Structure formats: C-alpha cells, structure tokens
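Researcher: Here's a chain I'd like modeled. Treat it as a single chain, no partners, no ligands.
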Amino acid sequence: MPIYFDLMSKDFPFVIESLGINWNQDEVSRPEGYPYYHWLQSTQGVGEIQFANKKISLPAGCGILIAPFYPHRYYKKSSEEWHTSFVTLSGNLAPSLSDIFQEENYFFIPNGHYFSQWTENIFNHLKKQDYTSLEYSVASYDFLLHLQKESQVKAPVDNKLYQTYLKPAISYMEKHFAQDISIENLAQQVFITPQYLTRLFQRFFHVTTLEYLNQVRIKKAKEILITKNETEIQVISQLVGFKSSSHFIATFKKATGYTPMAFRDLYI
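Model: Modeled as a single isolated chain. Structure tokens:
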C-alpha cells in the first residue's frame, strides 16, 4: 500500500506528517530516533521494538507511540511477514503530548482497535482528497485525545507513585474488602492523606478511592453469585463489605446494568 507524506499545511496545532496502512514492514533502525511523534501498529504477524536495554513485542492489534528523537529499531520477530500501519505527527501543540508518556519515551497500547479504525478512515479520506487541512488537524486531535485517555486509565506498573501508594492500597482492598474500610484508614496504610490518595486514583483510574473499592467489591460479588448460587443476596452483600443489601443492590445495578439476581440468572 502507498505511503502519504506532507498531507497538510504545517500551521496547525496538530499535523499529520505521514501515514501508511498495511505496510509490509522491513527492519528499521534509528539510532537518533525520529523527529516526530510516531505511532506504529501491527496489523499482521509479530514485530519487536528495541530500545536501549528493552524489547517490546508487537503482535497484531497492538500499537506503540514513540516520542521524538528517542533511539529505537524495529523488525519482524519471525519468518512470517510483518505488516504495520503508522502515523507520524507534529504541530504547534505537539510538545504538550509529553503527558501521555508518564516519565517514559514510549506508550504501549495492547488493544488498538480504535486507532486502526482511525488510520483506515484517514487513509480513505486521503484517497478521496475530500478533507481540508483543518479537518485533518481536528482528526489528529481526536486521535491524540484517545491516546491521552488510555494513558490516564492505564496505571504503568513501573510508575513510582503507583508502586509506592496505589499498589499497596489496592492490595489492602483485595484482602480486606469484606471489612468496613474507610478512606481515612486506607490512606493511613500508605502514609498519605485521603485527599492525595483520591487524586492518585483519579489520575490513574479516573475514579475516586471509594469508587475503586466498590469495583473490587462488585467483582467479588460476581464471583460469589456465580459460584455459590444458593447464597442469599443479603448474605452476599455482607460478605463483600456492604452495610445494607439495598445499597449493595443499587451499587451493583449501577455498575453492571443488572440487579444481583438478574446477573445470576444470566449464568445459571
């Protein structure tokens, strides 16, 4: 498939510099990196991205955003052909994208369904030549907005704040979800204020501390509903830490769209 370069005027907040789709990918080595933000996604086969002392496998469907001027190389991982789609981006506001990387120079996406659809859509507009530079810039912003949302939802395991505060807090929730856990008590376990703990949960998971705790409890409730189908709803609500069955039922329905009994009926 062809590659498109210099798609639009450069005087926009976000600019698509190049785009290719279902490209039969050869090995690429860039000891000084690439001058623009570079999105690379596998569409067939398996590739491997190599940074200084780290290798990341890129099977079909997965994608990775690489920061400008960050040294890397990539190549197919087996004898099978490796096909990729890619987009390179720049623009007046491109430096603001650094927030996506969370102290890294790349950002890995395990499920790139939205991004593959986006690339195909832009490719079709390029063939038709029915988009203006402004429309390409708006589309680029939408692409980057979805990447930013992914970075906010995903908590990288090597992030220091996640390791120091959220990981032990989540571990405590997983062990003591049946107990009456207050946010204050949870914050004391990791030696920070309740307000700061909630800010961290909102940063990494887009929910408050209490909302995350309820997610843990609902997950446990689902397991009991399916594996212990004779257990009464009132008993389950107590087993997973709710003070009343009415609160449990309301929270469960809000999270799943079903009452606990209706959810159980789906499986039994």
